[in-house]
Amino acid sequence: LHMMMIKNNPNNNDKDQADEKDDFAARHMFTRKDVHIQPYLGVLLHAFATISFFVFISATQAFLLLDVYLINPRTLGAVGGQLTLADEITSLTFLFVWGMISDRLGRKRVIAIGYALTTLGLFTMPLGTLWQQHLVPARICFAIGTSALTVCLAAMIGDIVQPKGLPRASAGAGLMSGVGALVGVYGYLRLGSFTCLKTAYFVVGAICALLGLVVVLLYRNAPKVKQQSTAIKVLSVGLFQKVPKLIKQRPNLGLGLASSYAARSASVVSSIFLSNWFALYMQESGECPLPGDPSLIANATATFCSLDTRCSAAVAASSSANGILQVLALIGAIPIALALERKWLPTPRAGFLFALTLGAIGYFATLGIRNPHSSTIYGVAVLMGLAQISLIITSQVLLLTEIPAACSDIRGTLTGLFSATGSLGVITIGYGGGALFDTGFYQAPFMLTGIICMVMIFLTLVLIKKHPHRESAVDEEEDESTAEEEEDDSSSNMKQIQPMMNEIKDD
């Protein structure tokens, strides 16, 4: 009877074709059915831009301090750590603020403000002579802007992507982040060796303003955020009521929020301390002159770049090692996304555990390197690059799959918390690693990151043992949806079969 009804229903072919098209869109476009492709292109460009500026600032920090601000090389780790501390304390504060504001006013306005402040920070960083009076305020401005960009990235993906498409969408953002990192180390950073760092900062600032405009235009057709009525309600209901209740109900969400600590630690340690390591090693070996060398000052011309000593060999060597790392991060994005999507890594927790293991191996491997200018560094960079992209993708998927659809109105608040825990990781590596770096133990920041990975492995295993079969919010919602669809289909079939059964009974 069921087969007869299917054959005799003239609308079934059209319906099947429509369903087939919907399935194709779900598999290949992975955005929600009410979302055009432009907002996702905006997300990809936003991921590219944000990471490229982060990498540029981190990779040039050592050269900016040594060559433009002329600090003592023996205080490089401490000064860099203080800059990172000021940067991340600012970010910690504003990540909460921007997350709640984006839930209130929408993502587009927050993104526009973020790009404007980031551009201002880039333009003003190389203009001073005293790092405490001039560089710190510029870095704070940059941190306020980039915290707005960071908090919106994960929230934007959650706003426009279907739950099943999160691994693939996060991989797309991860790929563009990898491309942005490559541009940061091979493009933006090399500008400093071709011209000078001051000019490079101005060029990158102009690029930031242009990319920000394009991102806002692409994202203008994105669905509107379900807004809370007032900022006070966002704070009280979102942060102090819903979030603690959700974490208690869903322990995986707590792990997702904490996962950013390891992911950001892994991202920042290579971009900051590889450059520091190369700069100091090449100065100690005599391959690069020390800042303030009398011959350099005597030969300097009265130009805008007169105080920039431009040790181009250190810049080139550092960008090569960072480039290898970022290329492997770029290549590794696709396999890790496929492993999550096709359940080769059965759960986001298993994927995160795999990424942490890679990180622990890669960062502890730096202990065997004495000369960063040797070919050994490239093998370690391969491991660190794979670990970095795996941690970024798995942490985002772990977080976003644990946010129920009913709580989409606090997605910005949750991604703000996610980014804030990442800032704590940056503070740990930047400040603690910087202090250890100044003792002459140049591998110390990498070892500290390896220890963080080991601690997170332990916590993840404890959670898996305590809640071995807990499903994600997305899986539970899919199960409920499937059950409702089966119930509706069964009810519909019975309504169609009943008249036929009555005819048979009458006969």
Summarize this, please?
The chain is an all-alpha fold. It has 17 helices and no strands.
The pLDDT mean sits at 76
Helix content: over 70%
Over all CA atoms, what is the radius of gyration? 26 Å
Q: What is the CA–CA distance across the termini?
A: 16 Å
Per DSSP E runs of 2 or more residues, the count of β-strands stands at: 0
Q: Which residues form runs of ≥5 with pLDDT under 50?
A: 1-7, 17-28, 295-304, 306-310
Biggest β-sheet, characterized? none
Number of helices: 17
SSE order, one letter for each helix or strand: HHHHHHHHHHHHHHHHH
Strand content: under 5%
Provide the structure class: mainly alpha
Taken from the alpha-carbon principal axes, the silhouette is globular
Question: Can you offer a commentary on this structure?
Answer:
The structure is a single chain. With 507 residues, the chain is mainly alpha-helical. It has helices at 2-8, 12-28, 37-68, 76-105, 107-124, 131-160, 166-194, 197-218, 231-249, 251-284, 294-299, 312-341, 348-364, 376-400, 411-437, 444-466, 473-506. Helix 5 (107-124) runs antiparallel to helix 8 (197-218) and helix 10 runs antiparallel to helix 14 (376-400). The two termini are 16 Å apart. The model is unreliable at 1-7, 17-28, 295-304 and 306-310 (pLDDT under 50).
